[in-house]
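Reading a protein record of the kind used here takes only a little practice. To see the layout at work, look at the sequence and tokens printed below.
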Amino acid sequence: MLGFFVLVGWTIGAVEAISLSIIVGLSVDYTLHLGHSYNHVPKKDRYGKTRVSLAEIGSSVLAGAITTAGAMIPLFFCIIQVFVVIGVIVSVTIGLSIYFSLGLFSAILTAIGPEGRSGKITVYYRWCKYQLGWITLAELEQEDASDHEPPPSPSPQPMEMQLVALAEEHKFSDISRPSQSPRNSKDLLLGGGEKKTFEPPELSLGLAMTKSSAAKPAYQRLDEL
């Protein structure tokens, strides 16, 4: 952007300085999206990873750039010069950012992008520690070997534990463990096939009061009133 200022003959004033601090995030946004997508592509080679990342997120990045730059067009026709300067700076930033992300950055990923263990910062960090004498060669080889170990898979929970967790999530408080193996998953929740009704606390309290008052003689109920 500083080169653009020189081309158009602008000087860095208050508006330009504020705009430069705002467009820092816009200038790297599309590149970060492509890099993140590149790292999560399951393919092994650089060309395949770059191609899949562009196919998955390239259209979204391009659409975001078009809409952002299009939102700046009305600012070109403002009477206040501050709005015109901000619109021009943001539009030029979006254009340069989308050009370098879809063009130059994609070419760099295809040529020297991370592939396998190459491009990992941890590998270079361990190599620097070895060169500085902080770790031995055996420790370096052990840490390198740990990169190739697959992560442990989580142990599956038993079906009964999953159903109990599901019942607790839905706040079913009256759960009994079945004494014998149930026929289906609904029997687990209802305790071996027994049908259980869940009454609201207000309804249960009203029924209890009605039953207690009905059991009393008529003269006692009149005295209470």
Notes: Residues 172-196, 198-209 have pLDDT under 50 and may be disordered.
